Hints:
Number of domains: 3
Oligomer: single chain
Largest sheet: 5 strands, antiparallel
CATH topology of the largest domain: Trigger factor, domain 2
Order of helices and strands: EEHHHEEEEHEEEHEEHHHHHHHHE
Helix content: 40-55%
Radius of gyration: 32 Å
Amino acid sequence: MPKIIQANITSELKYTVQILAEKKEYEDFKERLVDQFIKNVDVKGFRKGNAPKDLALAKVDQLKLQTTILEETVQKFYTELLPEIKKDLEDKKRDVVFSSAELITDAESTKETDKGFEFTINLSLLANADLSIFDKLELKKPVQKDLENRLSFKDFSDKEYKNLITTFAKYKTVETKAKKGSKIIADITEQLATDKSEPKENKDAELILGQNLFPPEFEEKLIGAKASETKKFELDLEIGEHSGHNHTPGERSQKYKFVVKIKEVQEPATDDLDEVIKNSEDAKKQLKSKENVDKLLKDIYDRETEELLIVKKRRDVVEVIVNKVPNFDLPKILVNSEIERIMGVLQARSLERKITLMESFNQAGLPGSEAKLKNDNQVLEKVTDYVNKEFKLVEILRAVYYAKVEPKIMPEEMAEIQADMQKNPAKYNLRNEDVVGDKAADIAFDRLLREKSYQWVASQIKFI
Length: 464
């Protein structure tokens, strides 16, 4: 019989069990595997299965043979010890994900000795989280007044009216300074600061300040400009941000030089939406009437409000998960590694942009960046707090999934989300290389696990 040499719980939320398959039993089993493997090997001059063993072995793929022996041996002796492993975990009052069993393949952990065959299995432990907190939990249901910075319907409508007037109104040339909503006609040249070639030129370019077809930093430089002025400036723009494209925070930025020769500043000929609709065929066709616009805006406003309330409710539930469940051990190495990674990114951005670490942290938009920090040393505190909360949330959701969620993730659910990830990687904030193979399956499983666990927690909370 195989036996457990030792079993430990590590600081990485792993249950590590070292197993010995005793020499005679191991060698007998290995011999049977070899005999079975060479049974169907063709050796010239002999019937299949009747060739001398050494001749048959010379014909087989040795790597495949050794891989088969390793896999079958581990499976056999690990399975035989499963009842003992489960009993040990019960005694230690710990739950484990048995499907996570992983063979440690380094030479020290998996080897043949004079005692037999030793191998080590790692199993992922569920966090020692107290989930009973969710049994009797009440939470205030969010309403519109709980939405920070949510505009009233009147302010929302006024803003949208201005946008529609900006889009459809006829413009007239003015001598006044450009402001938000003004149209500027200009010749624009741009050049990378490090590029020695001829700059790119865009003649008679039209831009309406505030429409964000150009980076906001670019448009801000033109506020207050007048006709016949020339604006020269340099901007650090994220790669992907230039020309109005979306970008991912943390991407490398580059310095651009701009020369903007302003030919005209124009303003809408009217600020009355009824008049715009009356005098613009496009507006009349698309908007029909101010009453129709009001109805559309009300539908949009209500829908947006409902979506914001859903997001607010989700954040409140997540906050409850993180703050109400008492603290427990987290995988220290992974936590520290993530803290170091984030700090490394922030420090690199700080050096590249010649800004303080505080400013780099604020620009990254991480939780805590809205607080007014006093010095760079507080950045590490904020990052550490953020990472610990993220890992705590993940471990709680894993524990909820394996201990509480039924039914578990189904193959068809995995297939559906993987197919959607492949079609729309940007929807999931993924790169093309993330949506293929095992990596895609891991990401899909993790997303489904978190969503099912969140839904279970939300179903336990009484909203009042």
